[in-house]
Each structure stands twice: as C-alpha cells, then as structure tokens.
C-alpha cells in the first residue's frame, strides 16, 4: 500500500513537471526549453521582391518545377474570394526556396538561406528601340502585396534596409522588380527603406543633381550600405551596381552613372539605416 502511494505521488510529481511551462512532452522524451541561449539569431532576415517576367500560368509552372522556387506568387490581378485577394504560397516559410540564386547583401552570401521570396506576375522589360521598357504593376497586385509583406516583416522583425529588390542582391544578373516598382509607396506603409527628402537635400547642398560625381566615392557608399562591390569590379559591373541602386531609390533616372543626387541619396540612407 505504501509502495503504491509512493509511486502515485512520484507519477503526480512527474506529471506536474511535464506540465510546467517550458517542459515539452515529446512522447518518448521530454524537452526542457526553460533556458534559452543568448547567442541565437532568427534565420529569416531578408525579404526579396521579384517579378516573374512571364504570365501567371507559366510562372506557376516554373516556380513549382525542380529548378527554382519562391515562397509566394502574386498574380497581376489576384482573384477575389469572399472579397479577399488570393495569393499562392508555394514554399512554407520555414523551408528554403531557391529564388535569390548567387547573391550578396550587407556582408552575407547565400541569401536563399536567410530570406523569404515574393514573386509578382509581371512581364518585366521589353527591348524597344534599344532601350529597356518595363511593364507597370497592377494596383490590385500591390494592394495584395502590402498586407503580406507587413505580416512577414512583423513575424521576423525584418529591418527596412533588408527589404530588397532581386537586383539589389544580384545586380550583375538581375533587374527585377525594376524602376516601376513602387518602393516609395511601400515605404510609406512601413515596408522597406526610403531616404528622407530633407536629408537628401542636405547632402546635395545646392549642387546640381545631375552633375557627375566621383564614381569610386559613390561605390564606396553603396558598398557600405550593403551592395556587393568587389575590389576587381569592372567599369561595366560598376554601372550595373549603380543602376540597381538607382532603380530602387531614384527610379526617374537609372542610367548607372554616378551623379550628385545618387550620392546624396546614398549618404542619406547610410545616415538613416547604418552600414551593412
């Protein structure tokens, strides 16, 4: 009788421990999660925006094939279901998607490992008279993107400077989402970085905006902000980096040429968000 009572008390004690906050019963074993390490960091740090350069059906087929993938795909005009736009989730957020490819941002490579990718159905650019002509984004598509991006940013505490274009993290290979993507509109919604106009004017300091600036100085600023600017970069590659930055932050002119306004924007961004 005494032995049975002791066993019952022991069982109750163990049950109480298992029910204790931070003790997780896994069936064949228990996990004690009451002491958490300080040197732990979230895996998701970056949100990357893309365009598909194709129609929706072709994009969906490509992104569900074996070679590339993305966490989300948003149609140009999302279908409404009970008044809500439908977005396709192709990869769970806790899984790695192959959307960034060879990439670099703020000192880190392998951006696929630390990012969530959102693809927007958009035909990208067409060659017209030797110039790239980009397709605009549908307002309904941007309206669907905004709450999704906000949710992702809130879940993972993604910093504004880490909401980036595919072109930002791979400027030698990519142009997307291009100069018609409404980065400033998104920044007003708390999505991504944007320079303060007053600080751009401060750094411009009355200089003509389109006057050429020192290219090495600008590239140093862009490198400090987060872009990949290796020491042996060619003049053509330099132009691609500057162009990617301009498409994001000065989309009115993205010729890849260093000028006073581009440099002032880079200085204002570094002041606001710090170095990468």
From TrEMBL:
GO terms for cellular component: outer membrane. It holds the Pfam family Amidase_2. The keyword Lyase does not apply. Residues 32-178 form the N-acetylmuramoyl-L-alanine amidase domain. Keywords: Cell wall biogenesis/degradation, Hydrolase, Signal. Belongs to the N-acetylmuramoyl-L-alanine amidase 2 family. This is N-acetylmuramoyl-L-alanine amidase.
């Amino acid at each position: 009788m005494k032995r049975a009572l002791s066993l019952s008390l022991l069982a109750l004690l163990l049950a109480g421990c298992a029910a204790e906050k931070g003790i997780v019963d896994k069936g064949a074993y228990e996990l004690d999660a009451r002491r958490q390490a300080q040197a732990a960091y979230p895996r998701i740090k970056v949100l990357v925006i893309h365009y598909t350069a194709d129609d929706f059906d072709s994009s969906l087929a490509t992104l569900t094939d074996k070679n590339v993938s993305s966490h989300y795909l948003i149609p140009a005009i999302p279908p409404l279901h009970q008044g809500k736009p439908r977005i396709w989730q192709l990869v769970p957020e806790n899984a790695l998607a192959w959307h960034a490819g060879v990439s670099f941002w703020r000192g880190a490579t392998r951006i696929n490992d630390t990012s969530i990718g959102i693809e927007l159905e958009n035909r990208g650019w067409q060659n017209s008279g030797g110039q790239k002509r980009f397709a605009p984004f549908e307002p309904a598509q941007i309206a669907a993107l905004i709450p999704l991006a906000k949710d992702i940013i809130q879940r993972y505490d993604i910093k504004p400077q880490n909401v980036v274009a595919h072109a930002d993290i791979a400027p030698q290979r990519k142009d997307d989402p291009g100069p018609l993507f409404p980065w400033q509109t998104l920044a007003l919604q708390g999505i991504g970085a944007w320079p303060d106009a007053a600080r751009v004017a401060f750094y411009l300091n009355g200089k003509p905006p389109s006057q050429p600036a020192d290219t090495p100085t600008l590239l140093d600023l862009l490198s400090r902000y987060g872009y990949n600017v290796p020491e042996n970069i060619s003049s053509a590659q330099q132009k691609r980096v500057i162009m990617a930055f301009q498409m994001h932050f000065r989309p009115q002119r993205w010729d890849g040429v260093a000028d006073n306004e581009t440099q002032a924007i880079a200085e204002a961004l570094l002041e606001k968000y710090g170095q990468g």
